[in-house]
Design a protein that fits this description.
With 188 residues, the chain is mainly β. The chain is built from two helices and nine strands, in the order βββββββββαα. Strands 2-5-6-7-8 form a five-stranded mixed sheet, with helices on one face. A two-stranded antiparallel sheet has the order 1-9. Bound molecules: zinc ion (2 copies). One zinc ion (ZN) binds at residues 152, 154-155, 157, 164, 166.
C-alpha cells in the first residue's frame, strides 16, 4: 500500500448528494485545483508546476452513487538512475462509491473504493479521493527513458552520453560478493 498523504491544499470539491438538475446542479463537474509545489512520495521528490485538472462525474440520482474521478497534471522528478530532471504526465481515472453510512448493502463488499457519509449529509467532499487517486498514480520509480544507463559509480559520468572508460567491474559489489563466496576463482 502507498504511504498515506493528507492533501495539503483546501480544495472546494463538494458535490450535492441529491442534485437538482433543474436548479443547475450538474452531474458532471470540472475543477482546476491547486497543488503543492513539491511532494515527496516513494522516496522521490516530485515537482508539481501546474494544476490538477479534475473531472468528476456521478452516476445517477439516488443517495448511493458512483463518482468517476478523472484527472491529469504535469510533474517532474529526477531519474532514479542518472538524476536528470524528467518531465512526467500524471493521469488516471478512479471510481468511488458513495453511500450513507446507515446503508450497509455495499459495505458488505468491503471495498476500499466505498466512501460512507453521514445519513443527514447534503453534500460529499471528494477531496480525499481526488488526492488519493493522484498520489497513487505517481510513478514509484522515475526513469528518463526505459533503458537509462545511469551514472558511472566510479567517476559519476552520465553513461547515456557514452562510456567513461572506468573499470567498473572492480567496484561492482556483486563481483566482490562472488569472489568472497568462491575464493578459488583465479584472477588473471
Ligand atoms: Zn536517466
Ligand atoms: Zn567513470
Amino acid at each position: 500500500m502507498p504511504e498515506k498523504h493528507l492533501h495539503p491544499v483546501d480544495w472546494n470539491t463538494r458535490i450535492p448528494i441529491d442534485p437538482n438538475p433543474a436548479a443547475g446542479e450538474p452531474f458532471l463537474t470540472c475543477w482546476s485545483l491547486e497543488l503543492p509545489d513539491t511532494l515527496e512520495y516513494s522516496g522521490q521528490v516530485f515537482m508539481l508546476p501546474g494544476k490538477l485538472e479534475v473531472r468528476a462525474e456521478r452516476s445517477s440520482e439516488g443517495r448511493s452513487f458512483w463518482v468517476e474521478i478523472t484527472f491529469s497534471s504535469k510533474a517532474s522528478s529526477a531519474c532514479s538512475r542518472c538524476l536528470k530532471e524528467t518531465p512526467l504526465e500524471i493521469g488516471g481515472s478512479f471510481r468511488y462509491f458513495y453511500t450513507p453510512s446507515a446503508d450497509d448493502d455495499r459495505q458488505a463488499a468491503d471495498d476500499e473504493m466505498t466512501v460512507a457519509y453521514p445519513p443527514d449529509a447534503v453534500e460529499v467532499d471528494l477531496s480525499e479521493q481526488i488526492w488519493e487517486s493522484f498520489v497513487v498514480s505517481l510513478p514509484e520509480k522515475v526513469l528518463c527513458r526505459d533503458k537509462c544507463a545511469g551514472l558511472c559509480p566510479v567517476c559519476g559520468a552520465d553513461l547515456n552520453l557514452g562510456s567513461c572508460g572506468c573499470q567498473k567491474a572492480a567496484y561492482d559489489p556483486r563481483m566482490q560478493a562472488l569472489k568472497d563466496i568462491l575464493p578459488d576463482v583465479s584472477e588473471d
